[in-house]
Write a structure and sequence with these properties.
Residues 18-121 form the Glycosyltransferase subfamily 4-like N-terminal domain. InterPro entries: Glyco_trans_1 (IPR001296), Glyco_trans_4-like_N (IPR028098). The structure is a single chain. By secondary structure, this protein is of the alpha/beta class. It folds into two domains: 2-160 and 324-354, 3-Layer(aba) Sandwich (Rossmann fold); 162-319, 3-Layer(aba) Sandwich (Rossmann fold). The chain is 39% helix and 18% strand. The chain has 13 helices and 13 strands. It has helices spanning 20-34, 70-83, 100-103, 123-129, 140-143, 186-196, 211-218, 235-243, 260-267, 280-283, 296-304, 311-321, 324-357, and strands at 2-6, 38-44, 52-57, 90-93, 110-113, 134-137, 150-154, 173-179, 200-205, 227-229, 245-250, 272-275, 290-293. The strands form two sheets. It has a seven-stranded parallel beta sheet with strand order 3-2-1-4-5-6-7, sandwiched between helices. Helix 1 (20-34) packs across helix 13 (324-357) and helix 6 (186-196) packs across helix 11 (296-304). The radius of gyration is 22 Å and the shape is globular.
Length: 358
């Protein structure tokens, strides 16, 4: 197929550090190329890909200190997309709803993967207005706030099989990986580690909007011999960080749409202890790839039960459910179905026009 992948411009594809959406777009793009598809990636100029790259901005906007209005760059990129649209069998957008007013007026086959949280009141009128735009969820739970959206399928994220490998967890520490923010509940991870007397290594990004939260609620908790704050890490460091961990702590307090870090842990054979929120029950097989818990006390008990988890089985589950090859095949099925529906609608519209002329 001739496929266009349209990525956000805030991070490069793949990102240098933290950046879930851009990372998924990269894995998907490279897997499509590997499978023999003709792929064009619309992304920042510092992106690295085996597909044809169309630069939407000179470099990732988060790293561009001269960038004041990131939306301006996205609309320039969208103009390029629609100028080239007839060169593709499908346009696959990963930029939320920015393109919706253009897409509903176009005659091109397109889908949009929604990567973020959808339980925001402001989104209700938006998806009621654009209820014909075909969208893909990254978990079934993600859909719940927007039942009126035109959901065509759920496709779970995937990562390349060779990115990580089965590891022993010989570091004997607990790991926290992600962002420092109220909904990620690093404070609970710290309390769990202290309660069981295990080291906790924290590899986390602090966004500007979360600096005040970090200073007031987290910083003082780091002054403890069991707690080590590493900061933001890249892909290479992540292999060692997750692979040597006894478990990943994922004590979230929000409707997590997916949670890439969970399948990254699985790929290393590292079990996850996660709070029962959002997509967690769809990703973790309780007692097989980790433990789904409801509170800190259950999380503490889960730490003591970690020897019951077979790390090799964690890796096998990852390969079967969350490899990039699985994700790519599932998206091809979506593309083919959406393309068929699009063709049917065009034929129906053409017949209607002919009848009106007659």
């Amino acid at each position: 197929m001739r496929i266009a992948q349209i990525a956000p411009l805030y991070e490069s594809t793949p990102p240098q550090f933290y950046g879930g959406t851009e990372r998924v777009v990269s894995y998907l793009t490279e897997e499509f190329v590997k499978q023999g598809h003709d792929v064009t990636l619309f992304a920042s100029g510092d992106s690295i890909t085996n597909a044809k790259l169309i630069k939407g901005s000179p470099k990732a906007l988060r790293l561009d200190i001269g960038c004041i209005d990131p939306l301006a760059h996205h609309f320039v990129m969208l103009q390029k997309v629609f100028e080239m649209a007839d060169q593709f069998d499908v346009l696959h957008f990963h930029i939320d709803y920015l393109h919706f007013p253009f897409s509903i007026r176009s005659d091109y086959c397109h889908i949009t993967t929604l990567h973020g949280r959808l339980d925001l009141p402001d989104l209700q009128p938006l998806y009621s207005t654009f209820d014909k735009v075909p969208v893909v969820s990254i978990s079934n739970h993600q859909r719940k706030p927007l039942l009126q959206a035109n959901w065509v399928d759920t496709v779970y994220h995937g990562i390349p099989h060779d990115l990580y490998s089965l590891n022993s967890g010989e570091g004997h520490y607990l790991a926290f990986l992600g962002r420092v923010s109220p909904e990620k509940r690093l404070d609970k991870a710290i309390e769990i580690a202290k309660a069981v007397g295990m080291r906790l290594k924290i590899a986390a990004k602090i966004d500007k909007v979360d600096i005040e939260y970090f200073n007031h609620h987290i910083r003082h908790m780091l002054d403890h011999p069991l707690i080590e704050f590493i900061g933001e890490i890249g892909e290479t460091e992540k292999k060692i960080f997750l692979g040597n961990a006894a478990a990943l702590l994922f004590p979230i307090d929000w409707p997590e749409p997916f949670g890439m870090v969970m399948i990254e842990a699985m790929a290393n054979g590292t079990p996850i202890i996660a709070f029962n929120k959002g997509s967690v029950p769809e990703i973790i097989d309780h007692g097989v790839t980790g433990f789904i818990v409801s509170n800190e006390q259950e999380a503490i008990e889960a730490v003591y039960n970690l020897p019951l988890i077979d790390r090799a089985e964690c890796r096998r589950v990852f390969e079967h459910r969350f490899g990039a090859d699985v994700m790519a095949r599932n998206y091809i099925k979506v593309y083919e179905r959406v393309a068929e529906d699009h063709c049917t609608q065009k034929n129906r519209a053409r017949k209607t026009s002919i009848k009106e002329i007659i």
